[in-house]
Amino acid sequence: MSKPSNGPTLKSAGTGPKTSATARPTSPASAPIEVAGAVVTARDGLSFSHQHLFTEQLAHLLGAGLTLDEGLKILGQRLRQPRLRGLSQTLHRALVDGRSLSQALGEFPRIFPPLYVNLVSAGEASGALPKILLRLSEHLSALQVLRDKVRGALLYPAVLVVAGSG
Question: Does 11 have pLDDT greater than 70?
Answer without folding.
Answer: no
